[in-house]
């Protein structure tokens, strides 16, 4: 059974959609000061107001809520703060290995020590999950290259002249 419309109202007039979202509030509007009267129907209307305030979008309740009298404003929730993972610790042996490998440019003897320490640092990094894999690899590469260049330099400086002397002595004959 349907009831007739009240007199003076058009039954086909546009009715407001009860499921439509509430009109968006002005994001640039200044919030009311603490203790100031609130207009009914505003987003921060008290529970006893005749018009219920529209429900704010998720997460907006923290921004527009005013704290009770005598309390400090609430902090932002943890979900809205950026998350930065903790940095992994640096493997100190990898740094020492790289330093010794580079010092091997000046004093050849520290280059193989730096390369060997680089291998040890790589093993520690795999077991503990620390940072410094790039430093250890650089120490290994630089250390062995400098060691190889040092060995070739020693061969050129000491062995080749000795071979030249021995060749000259062996080839010298008196006629």
TrEMBL record:
Residues 1-74 are annotated as: Disordered. InterPro entries: DUF4190. It holds the Pfam family DUF4190. Keywords: Membrane, Transmembrane, Transmembrane helix. Residues 26-42, 65-74 have a biased composition (Low complexity). It comes from the Bacteria. Residues 43-57 have a biased composition (Pro residues). The chain crosses the membrane at residues 93-117, 138-169. This is DUF4190 domain-containing protein. Residues 93-152 form the DUF4190 domain.
């Amino acid at each position: 059974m349907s009831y007739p419309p009240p007199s003076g109202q058009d039954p086909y007039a546009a009715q407001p959609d009860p499921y439509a979202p509430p009109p968006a509030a002005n994001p640039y509007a200044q919030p009311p000061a603490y203790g100031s009267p609130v207009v009914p129907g505003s987003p921060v209307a008290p529970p006893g107001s005749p018009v219920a305030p529209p429900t704010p979008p998720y997460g907006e309740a923290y921004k527009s809520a005013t704290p009770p009298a005598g309390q400090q404003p609430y902090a932002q929730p943890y979900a809205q703060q950026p998350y930065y993972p903790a940095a992994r610790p640096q493997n100190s042996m990898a740094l020492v290995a790289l330093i010794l490998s580079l010092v091997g440019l000046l004093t050849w003897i520290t280059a193989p020590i730096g390369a060997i320490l680089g291998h040890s640092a790589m093993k520690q990094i795999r077991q503990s999950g620390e940072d410094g894999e790039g430093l250890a690899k650089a120490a290994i590469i630089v250390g062995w290259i400098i060691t190889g260049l040092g060995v070739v330099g020693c061969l050129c400086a000491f062995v080749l002249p000795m071979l030249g002397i021995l060749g000259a002595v062996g080839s010298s004959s008196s006629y």
